[in-house]
Amino acid sequence: MIRDVRSLPHTVWLLAAISLVNDAASDMIYPLVPLYLASVLMAGPKALGLIEGLAEAASSLLKLFAGVLADRSGRTRAWVVAGYGLAGFARPLIGLATSWPGVLACRFADRIGKGLRSAPRDALIGLSVEPRQRGLAFGFHRAMDNLGAVIGPLAAAALLAAGVELRTVFLLSIVPALLVLVLALKVPEPERAPLPSKAPMRWTLAGMPPAFRRYLFALGLFTLGNSSNMFLLLRANELGAGATRTTLMWALFSFVAAVLSTPLSALSDRRGRADTLAMAWFAYALAYLAIGFLPSADWALWLAFAGYGVVTAALEGTEKALVADLVPRERSGTAFGWYNLVAGILLLPASLLFGWLWSALSPGAAFAFGSACALLAAVLLKTWVARAPADS
After folding, report:
1. Does any domain span residue 337?
2. Residue 392 domain-assigned (yes or no)
3. What is the CA angle 104-171-305, rounded to 5?
4. Which positions carry the signal peptide feature in this UniProt record (predicted)?
5. Which residue among 181, 206, 334, 361 is least crowded, i.e. fewest CB within 10 A of its CB?
């Protein structure tokens, strides 16, 4: 496995390093946002659902836009630099917000930056490796992303333990964000020809393989139950974990995902994308049920967060590798734009619905709904997407 990872192209390594540092900056503050909203700004689950839903929905629309234009121009580097730069400077401003609409504005700008960079970056990874290495490459990239998500919360926990205020922790996230911008400027352009200048821009799924469209439908159903991870942190806080333990639980989740993302995503290179992903979605359903119905923040909650890390490790890289397998090379940016659009646009209704179920019924009802969506999506992936004829 180590030899295989070392054989990955320089571009993949560079993008992995960027993701590591970027997520360290992002996850210094990500686990603290629900706590900041609840304890400082006095906002609850409904406000959290609105903030995350709107921010992710805007990000998703931009992912398609950036992916289509990257295919048309044959250029991805500018989108990567602009996206990481905008997000890096927006996140620290949360520490200056005095109301939840201010947090919404900062999260909105942060997600716009993610929208600009995601599809071109994913297309760049897919274009840089052979098909037999796609699971490995995307898994390694996600591993470094999750490793950054370990470093960030640990840094935040250390700062909080030292008596640093929440607002100051947000502001300090500018330091790794500056390093991200420097690294992004070193990303090379992939070797591919742009689409003919007279060719019309394709914003729709017209011309995409039927198997890819079926996959997007199953992914959409899974995403409808896959609300913002901030609800997991809110759940831990509600069970009595507190700011420091909640942050450390998030670090545990990220550490497990970082360690296992490369081998579990690479497993799809040998066992098949659909089989690996269906198992991951089924395990996700079990993990959501466990977190939703735990009675207290004891050892079982730590175990549940670790289990959720295993699930995340298996599905993140595999989902993207399957996209690259299903579409032609010249439309990879558009395909990843659609993948990210579907995976993100439904976060608005998913987060709003999750917040409503939580407030109107119970946290258990909200997590049970998410579990049911994941289970049905796994069944569709196995019985409809993977088994349907290629030309249907």
Report:
1. yes
2. no
3. 70
4. none
5. 206
Instruction: Please indicate, yes or no, if residue 328 is contained in any of the structural domains.
Output: yes
For residue 253, which of 205, 306, 179 has the smallest C-alpha distance? 306
Q: DSSP letter string over 295-328?
A: -SSSHHHHHHHHHHHHHHHHHHHHHHHHHHHHS-
User: Number of structural domains, the chain?
Assistant: 1
In three-state form (DSSP H/G/I as H, E/B as E, the rest C), the secondary structure along 164-188 is CCHHHHHHHCHHHHHHHHHHHCCCC
* Token duo for residue 205: 């799924």
Domain carrying residue 53: 2-188+208-385
Token pair of 180, please?
Answer: 């991200």
Whether pTM exceeds 0.90: no
Instruction: Name the DSSP letter for residue 81.
Output: H
Please give the Cα distance from 378 to 368 (Å, whole number): 15
Q: What is the CATH number of the domain that holds 96?
A: 1.20.1250.20
pLDDT digits 0-9 by tens, 165-216: 777 888 888 888 889 888 888 888 766 555 555 555 566 666 778 888 889 9
Where do runs of H (alpha helix) occur along the chain?
A: 2-6, 10-26, 33-39, 45-73, 77-90, 100-128, 134-161, 166-172, 174-184, 210-224, 230-238, 242-271, 273-293, 299-326, 332-345, 347-360, 363-380
Residue 196 lies in a domain: no
Q: Identity (one letter) of the amino acid at 42? A: M
Structure tokens at 270: 């040998």
